[in-house]
Amino acid sequence: MRILITNDDGISAPGLAVLERIAVEVAGPDGQVTTVAPAFEQSGVAHCINYARPFMYQQIGPNRFTVEGSPADCVLAGLHQVLDGPPDLILSGVNRGNNSAENALYSGTLGAAIEGALQGVLSIALSQYFGPENRALDDPFEASATHCKALIERIVAATPQVQPGYQLFYNVNIPPVAAASVKGTRIVPQGLRPGLGFHTEQMQSPNGRYFLWIRGGDQQVPTAPDTDAAVNLDGYISVTPMRADLTAHDMLDQLGPIAT
After folding, report:
1. CA–CA gap between residue 151 and residue 4 (Å, rounded)
2. Which end of the chain is more exposed for a tag (fewer CB within 10 A), N or C?
3. Is pTM, for the whole model, over 0.85?
4. What pLDDT digit, counting tens, does each position of 184-216 carry?
5. Which positions ≥6 away from 21 have C-beta within 8 Å?
6. CB–CB of 115/48 below 8 Å?
7. pLDDT computed for residue 117 by the predictor
8. Is pLDDT above 90 for 256?
9. Distances (CA, A) of 103 to 59, 111, 216, 217
10. How confident is the model at residue 9, as a pLDDT?
């Protein structure tokens, strides 16, 4: 296999090193793994692209490149500048922290997978949930390192080759536990942590100016049963198939009376 990998935590992130090792195993001895990752952390940029200004990219090693842009920029650079043809698979991550529930909408990790799907390439975003059980481990990514290879292979084998309309991409979240404590894998929808979205917190600098920090909610609060964060906190890997179609299909018929 030919695999393109990226992330939103940046080229030096430990989760990217984990994903590079996983990708080499998935690609096989005759495969090729190419890394195109942001030069600096790009967490929270979602599906942002820098189409109003140019951005620098450079090669820093064999099949390793950095981009001064977003994860979606990295995918575009990888597909249209670095590689000489489309890869078989795009992997994004392994993110430091979960992208379950509403986090998925802000995630640069998923932004890369969205762009990959829009470009017609099967794409998987992988995130390692953090919590009390794994944060203090020598390797908090050990559950991802242990379980992701086989899971990626199963997803690739199960995905239809021909898809109508918007292409599938996958949001995978690894639970906040040690590798041996992972209970299995669940295919579940995206959840919501009601009332736990992002907010601002004001701070004052020594020179008297005011700044705002963005703060998130408690990540150890489960979503509704049988949704992503709920199964993650119960020790399961969540796999959520997604498409970039934002249409509220359930409302199309209900809004019929307003048409003229």
Report:
1. 17
2. C
3. yes
4. 999 999 999 988 888 999 999 999 999 999 998
5. 145
6. no
7. 97
8. no
9. 31, 12, 9, 10
10. 98
Q: Which of 110, 243, 236 is nearest to 177 (CA)?
A: 236
- Give CA–CA dist 10/181, Å, rounded: 28
Residue whose structure tokens are 């700044």: 211
- 41 closest CA partner among 116, 3, 95: 95
SS3 85: coil
Give strand pairing partners of 96.
128
Cα distance between residue 84 and residue 145, in whole Å: 29
Q: What is the mean pLDDT of residues 64-70?
A: 98
Q: Determine the length of the chain.
A: 260
DSSP H stretches of helix in the chain: 14-27, 71-77, 108-118, 142-158, 228-233
Q: Output b/e per residue, 139-159; b: 16+ Cβ within 10 A.
A: ebbbbbbbbbbebbeebeeeb
Whole-angstrom distance, CA of residue 95 vs CA of residue 7: 7
Tokens 């992130």 found at = 13
Inter-residue contact 76 to 115 (CB < 8 Å): yes
CA distance 199 to 247: 26
pLDDT reported for residue 169: 98
